[in-house]
Amino acid sequence: MSRPILEIEDVALEYASSDGPITALERVTLGIEGGDFVCVVGPSGCGKTTLLRIIAGFIPPSAGSVRLDGAEIAGPDHQRGVVFQQPALFPWLTVQENVEFGPKMRRLPAPRRGELAESYLRLVRLWDFRAKPPYELSGGMQQRVAIARVLANDPRILLMDEPFGALDALTREHLQEELLKIWKVTGKTVFFITHSVEEACYLGTRVLVMSPRPGRVLAAIEAPFSRQAGNGSSRAVKSSPEFVALREQVLTYIWEEEP
Description:
The protein has 259 residues and is α/β, with parallel strands linked by helices. The chain has helices at residues 48-56, 95-105, 110-123, 139-151, 169-186, 197-203, 225-228, 234-238, 241-257, and strands spanning 6-15, 22-32, 37-41, 63-68, 71-72, 80-83, 157-161, 189-193, 206-210, 217-222.
């Protein structure tokens, strides 16, 4: 069996507060294989985003280790691309310039930057909007630009922190389909945080259920639906008995752990 590209071993995080030290994460151990689409759910405050920030290199763990391709993560770099809930785009740059920004910071030559921008903007179907400033685009389109910008850096893993949480229900379902197409085309590994159990069961190859604080992994449940989805079949998939059974299994873990 191949070695996981991301290895999380006995990770804990404790931080100070006015009421004394608070343990946000406790003994989190996890391996993520290349090409996995791992979705993380759990009650508010369970440490989902904290774990993502540790993987991104934004904060160090208090204990344990996180390794990408066997190397300890010591800080942010382009190998771990992050897509936030609010698209963090530069309003003074065009859509294409936003996508080219990461490659430009890595000193890639202009022709190569242009090739990458065109490739990924076509992938997210926004090449015709390349000269627009981001604020002229809808929220869903801005999030697609944010995904293209991360992909242009060719990260080993894509970290997504509730990227569809601020969108309306129809746009959210549309972008779920778009993201699955992008995942299948690129073969990227995805670590995706969501509050929606339905979204996690639909998108993920695995669903991680986390406990209330201190966050622990309660269950890692295999999910087959992301590999079956496509061609606008999301409602048929989500209404199937198999999907409903998986959703209820995940919800049961969460409800049993809620205080």
